[in-house]
Design goal:
- The chain has 226 residues and is mostly helical.
- It has one domain.
- It has nine helices and no strands.
């Protein structure tokens, strides 16, 4: 009976984790509202979830804003590049869809491939920024190289990230509303937390100095730690 009210009980540990993810999700959404700070917000979210996976995190709000502040300048540039790239890809696909014939097919395949590379980089770019000190150029290069080198993990994380989109195909209005509410409370942080389990395994290969020197990734430096 005593174990029921023990704070180390699995139920309380689980509920504590859920509460942390709710706080983290709401922080991320609020800080994403000014679109220019979305990159810093996503980076800070991954900074926290990567620590949560290692059971290193105790102060969600403090750690979130610590990373937000430290990575704000680089994340602003990275976010702008990602937004511009997404806009250009979207416009190019719209133009291609108005074409016909062989040129349409060739360009559609080309921009589909570019879109896939964009998604692969997007999956890694902000976690890498959260974990490693590096230049913006090398952060992009490392994001691309890691996404290709660890392709099975990359595909799995893309699927996990895309799963919440299924909400918009729910025909029942009441269920749809409930799922949207759950997503607002837990959606982004839960996806980041699940993906962070894979990212930790990937990043661990590049953290030790002897592995960093032989990893083939350009100028990846020490991890960002408190």
């Amino acid at each position: 009976m005593g174990n029921l009210f023990n704070m180390d009980n699995k139920f309380f540990v689980f509920m504590g984790k859920v509460a942390d993810l709710i706080i983290l999700n709401l922080l991320c959404i609020v800080c994403c509202i000014p679109i220019v700070t979305a990159g810093a917000s996503i980076t800070a979210m991954f900074y926290v979830t990567l620590k949560m996976v290692r059971n290193e995190e105790a102060y969600i709000v403090r750690s979130f804003f610590k990373s937000f502040k430290e990575n704000l300048r680089q994340s602003l540039v990275i976010n702008l590049i990602m937004l511009v790239a997404a806009f250009l890809l979207f416009m190019d696909v719209r133009i291609v869809n108005q074409m016909e014939g062989t040129l349409h097919n060739v360009l559609l395949v080309l921009f589909t491939a570019l879109g896939l590379f964009y998604i692969m980089i997007f999956i890694y770019i902000y976690p890498i920024l959260a974990k490693f000190y590096n230049s913006i150029r090398n952060t992009f290069i490392n994001a691309f190289l890691m996404s290709v080198r660890h392709l099975p993990f990359t595909v799995l994380m893309i699927i996990i990230t895309a799963v919440p989109a299924a909400i918009f195909f729910i025909p029942n209005a009441q269920v749809f509303s409930t799922m949207i509410l759950l997503f607002i409370l837990l959606g982004f942080s839960t996806v980041a937390y699940i993906n962070s389990h894979f990212l930790v395994k990937i990043f661990d290969r590049y953290i030790p100095k002897e592995e960093e020197e032989s990893s083939g990734l350009p100028d990846t430096e020490a991890e960002t730690e408190a």
